Amino acid sequence: MNSSKIFTLVAALCVVPLSLTARDVPAKPEVYVPMKQLMTSMMDYQINKLDRAVKLSDQQKADLKAALTEEAAELGKLQKEHRGDMSFTIPGTIEIVTDTNAAILAIVTPAQKAAAVALVEERKAAFNNRLKMIVEELWMHQERMKNIPMAMDSAAAKP
What we know:
It contains six helices and no strands. By secondary structure, the protein is mostly helical. It has one domain (3-136). Helices cover 74% and strands 0% of the residues. Helix 4 packs antiparallel against helix 5 (113-146).
């Protein structure tokens, strides 16, 4: 299965909250993790971790904070514009995070590069783990939906 079909499948599965019935579903359900808040909350952790490893200058810290702040804003905007459509949000997120990772590597000196590469790899792994959790939840949702009898099926089964 190619990646666009997977993203379409994921997007289709993400639209309905897990505990709602069809008549309870609002016109535009909002089932998502607010990426801007998530990335903003991780910003200081990432800067401090790199600073502990290689002792960043004040200018490097400011540049990293600016790059991570821009990333959080772009992710928030992307998510707001394409809410529930993972065929746009996942590739867009990968592009934004990749650009930020390149900015991180451009900010550090050659002597600091190894620690920055480790941080970038940690960021990639964290994104992959979040994506894996989303997909696993979608699979569990599908399994739960198959095990829930529909009201019409129950009524039809009665004599």
